## 1
Amino acid sequence: MEITVIRPVLEANSKLAEALRERFAQHGVLVLNLISSPGAGKTSLLERTLTDLAAEGLRMAVIEGDPQTDNDARRVAATGAQAVQINTDGGCHLDSGMITEALASVPLEAIDILFIENVGNLVCPVEFDCGEDAKIALLSVTEGDDKPEKYPQLFHRAAVMVLNKVDLLPYVDFSVETAERHARRVNPELTVFGLSCRTQEGLEAWYAWLRKAAAHKRSGQSA
Amino acid sequence: MHEMSIVTSILSLVREEMCKHGVTRLYKVRICCGELSNVVPDALTFAFEALTAGTELEGAVLETERVPLTLRCGACGQVFAPEEQRVLATSCPVCYECFGHVVVTGRELHLQHLEAE
């Protein structure tokens, strides 16, 4: 017997993601899904951001996804922000089921921004909706300016591309113009920030974007 | 690597559908996956065999059908199949615009049909 079905394979994840999105909206929490290669600086960007923005009163929490260890959660927790570690046990991405579980220890009513630090990988995390408002693609200048061309799907679906480690530009063959051009070819609306977590240059523009996005999300709640 | 979790999702849909239709023996599952679905068919087959081995579904075959990429031009609205698959920024055959195209097909990842008794 032939049974015709036509059901999205990731249906279960999509349903959970929608439920998460509703919960986040109820609390007016901005949720950002950080995606990059291992070593691009996701945790460093969070350490800086959490430290600097907490000083002006923004309340933030982080869900950390790693195949092993809680090193990143400890680094994040050292800033005073709440961090929940998910060990994927070798898995290459986070999904909405894992986020739902992790939320048991995140007080949504007491935060403005929730960062999801995905597993370091430019491919798989793109496919799994975690209920976020936006995907943030983080690329460091030591990785090569051809990444947006090689991994177009991430840059196509991200709202923001953060170029990290710009202090190293004099020492590497990375053209910011090339990276931006390739990324904008697949996503003309992409917002791009060049910054360095080490020297702190360029961070202010990223913070301004975060403040605005968080305020926008919060106002959606009262509207 | 994420093919393992995709196959896990496929198998739970398959079991649900089999139960719904009162069948117990699975012969074939067909999945359609778009060029942009980030799924490697061979890896899917491999994961399917690994995850069905030793279960009531052992011996069933997974077939994948590729759905080609088609785009709607960001400038003139023409729907076209790019010459090079998986390339989002490519020139429109009508107005030559290269940027801002919308994906019409190619992102699918669907369970399409089952053969079972």
Note: Chain A touches chain B through 30 residues (CB under 8 Å).
## 2
Amino acid sequence: MLLSRLVEEVFRNDGRRVLAGLIRLTGDIDLAEDALQEACIRALDRWPRDGVPNSPGAWINTVARRVAIDRLRGAAFTSLPEHLAAPSVEPAAREVIEDDRLRLLFTCCHPALAPEAQTALALRTLGGLTTREIARAYLEAESTTAQRLTRAKNKIRAARIPYEIPPREKLPERVLAALAVLYLIFNEGYASTAAPSLLRVDLVAEAIRLARLTVELLPAEEEARGLLALMLLTDARRPARVSAQGDLVPLEEQDRSLWNRAAIDEGRRILEDTLRRGRPGPYQLQAAIAAVHAEAPTAAQTDWHQISALYSELLRCAPTPVVELNAAAALGMAQDPELALAWMERLGTAGQLARYHLLPAAQADLLRRLGRTDEALAAYRRALELVTNASERRFLEARLEQCVRHRAVSMSANPGQGA
Amino acid sequence: MKYILLIYGDERKWSSLSAEQMKAVYEGHLQYTEEMKKAGVYRAGAELKPVSTATSIRFTDGKTRTTDGPFAETKEQLGGYYLIETDNLEQAISWAEKMPGLREGTVEIRPLGMGD
């Protein structure tokens, strides 16, 4: 393997963990990022001469820490003592480092930071996204994102926002912000707005890992369990969600035998335990919806009445336009597509979803099912104007083409009807 | 009587000063503090970090919510303060008028209430 590729891989596997530890050590995100980068440069210089250490990640960690400490002291980097050149990883040290990322999550979600800055910072430090990728995910100029990140990092340093899990009495109010950011990281991994492909498995895995840690930290927090269950049940569909060509496969056309049964079982077990406590919340309800899908042997056997009821409940505790859109779509599947279309029409007029491609996409889907092909075509075109992800775009284009073909066939069958 | 002198100015103007100009302002403050100490009125004083480092705790119905920054975007920001003790407001005003480095801006004088 090329050395630069090896360093890249070490960076990808261990970089974020090392970074979180460096941030705790220095209290300075910029300094930590610089130190990590410097350590990778040193690896490229050293490893060809000295050989690759047994544990490359630990080597990078040790060197980055020395660089950071020396920078903090204002001293120049002195050469690394021999005994530190290839240190071993002790299990105890590893556990502490795991906690660093949870601490970092709470720092990123500190309410003294602006909400947009919280997510951007978490995607950057925990998700490893570049400034450009975050800018693309938020449909904003790269300079705006860069400024947001700089300001947030400066504030953490200047106002001394601590790197710690908040004190017990503050945890309940802080944990919801942390869960919200984890959910966003998961979504960015599951339906990437920034990457050319639909999935970023690394982000999904990181979000699930941090959700597990949050559940361990807060065993009494039902919503943390709900979120973990939701992530597991959703991610279980991953193997069936993208075709070999990299195209999005909609839920009803997925090969359900590809679904990850172990993840579904774990998600359902966690969800059932949690629901039994009788304190449902938005994440538990969304997990319950995902569980209903997971239980249906075929798409046609989906219990849409139950899903529609769960969405009504969800809409009551999380009345957002996106939830409302999903509630309308579920109603359309459960009983009345016409009623659902009227609901979506009202949502469109309200304006909050004006830039959201899934509104016209949902309308198009119902219109297509009702055989109102011309209207479906127009709705697919509107959705295509708004969509950003390439594979979602290809999916909408394929649907649009289906409609065009369908219209051609029905027109040739009933020549009187067209025009 | 104790008074707090709250210094409001345009932060952007302050940060656009040259290093030399800033140095002159800081020296002005050192001198000002010395004068106050000599006159026996100085109690405390400090420069504040920029408003971008501010955190606000908003109380509603007795519940608190922590947020980034101050709530209103204003042209002038609180940049520092002096705590002085003089016989009366006139003397406090005389001190406030000598505030160094403030070509544009406001010094708000507030007498301290109970509990000081």
Note: Chain B touches chain A at residues 49-50, 52-55, 65-69 (CB under 8 Å).
